[in-house]
Amino acid sequence: MGSANKTGTDRKARIEEMRRAEQARERRNRVLTIAASVVVVAGLVVGGVVLVRSQDDKGSDTAAASDSSGKGKFTTGKDGVKTWEGKLSRTHVTKAVKYASEPPVGGDHSPVWMNCNGDVYTEQLNNTNAVHSLEHGAVWVTYNADAKKADIDALAAKVKKTPYTLMSPMDDQKDPIMLSAWGHQRTVTGAGDPNVDAFFQKFVQGEQTPEPGAACTNGLSK
């Protein structure tokens, strides 16, 4: 019991530390945004910025057409967690992306992430936005029409209390309830399945995170 309490305390402390870091980052971003605006108004390097942005957009469109989640496959561990074996590309794109799994666990994605600070959505999300959230270290809880309402409600309550998580319906997934992180995924039997807590513990801002500590607020919301 003592060990379990210590684990829970450590996890809460880690999440609080991430929250403080995110708030500090947002303050720095606001300062940088103001400074950048002044530069733009002064007319400095406008031509260069426009040229670079144009080149980036062309590169993004090409990436969207030629590359999705990368080449690879899932392997299932003894704990039931499926791990993507292969490269997961991380290009920002503005077009639709065809992913290798539903829900996806990584790949090219929108420049704008879905808010994932314990956000619960009642409508299906655009995968490209949700994948960006995974890149920031979020766990994405999804469910289809076969999931029980009691499980949906219980999972929603858990997500709302957990930073770096989000939840939404996913009509096309094969199992009633699934959990996804960058490069990792598993099915659970319900809200009371102990694998829910185990997955959250391991993958919320876990070692798989490509951009640890990146924002889960100030993104897209529905």
From TrEMBL:
The chain crosses the membrane at residues 31-52. It comes from the Bacteria. InterPro entries: DUF3105. It holds the Pfam family DUF3105. Residues 61-73 have a biased composition (Low complexity). Residues 1-26, 56-78 are annotated as: Disordered. Keywords: Membrane, Transmembrane, Transmembrane helix. Residues 8-26 have a biased composition (Basic and acidic residues). Signal peptide: none annotated. This is DUF3105 domain-containing protein. It comes from Streptomyces luteogriseus.
